[in-house]
Every structure is written in structure tokens, then in C-alpha cells.
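Exercise 3.2. Students should predict the tertiary structure of the chain below and write it as C-alpha cells, then compare their answer with the key that follows.

Predict this chain's 3D structure.
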Amino acid sequence: MMREGLTRPSWDEYFMGIAKLVASRSTCLRRQVGAVAVADRRILATGYNGAPAGLAHCAEVGCLREERHVPSGERHELCRGLHAEQNVIIQAALHGISIQGATVYITNYPCSLCVKMLINAGIQEIVHFGDYPDELASEIVKEAGLRVRRFMEG
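Answer key:
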């Protein structure tokens, strides 16, 4: 029996809330991003942005992108970290979990590199909260026919 006055979050609110919590583990100095792969209302894998396992975090060694004044959305190769979307795919692969057909909840719109990876991983839908300055990502999403929804709080 449901207690009177109890309000439960919608599934989108629930999974985006988890993505935001996952983002809190990020070691990036510029942007904290979290991603959660979900199928049939079950979490398959999570990922956040930061340096590869076993490497020094940017908080310890500094940010190459900041030092070189690289604008957000450009020159992705000039970063020691992985994106949250890359890590959610890698974590699923490491644990032998297929994310084909899944939805990914991401705290930011993905960049073009991550969109291409998500497409090839078989992701069917992206639900995002924040934006990211990468026009090519939007063009690729449209061409691929990938479902994308912006999560609106409240």
C-alpha cells in the first residue's frame, strides 16, 4: 500500500538523478558528467568523465586543455580523461553486458565522438540534461535517426 502524500520520481527523474550522482565521482576540473545505461528500467552500467584507471587525476597533474586554452567542444584528443559516455560503454564491455537497445541518461549532450560510439554500441535513445557545444554531434544524431530527449526538471 502506498503511503498518502508520497510522491515517487518518474523513471526519467530517477535515472537522471542517478546520472547526476555518478557525475559527482568525476575527476575533471572543467565539467562533471555522468552517464547511466538503462534497459527495461534496469541499470546496466554507469560512467563518469576522468582519467583512465590507475592514472593520476587532473586535480593532481593539472588540465592540459586549460593550460592550452582549448575551448569546450574542440580538440578532444588534448585531454587525459575519458568522457562519461565512453566509460559507460567500456564498463559494460568489461563486465560482458550488452547495451544494445538501451537508453543512456547523460548529464550533458554528448560530443560527436561519443555520439558515434553510442550509435555503434547500439544505443537507441539518449536522454540528456545539459548542453554541449558540438554541432557535428547534432548532425550525426539526426542522420542516424537516434532518439534524443532533453530532460526537463520538475
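Discussion points: The chain has six helices and five strands. The first helix runs from residue 11 to 23.
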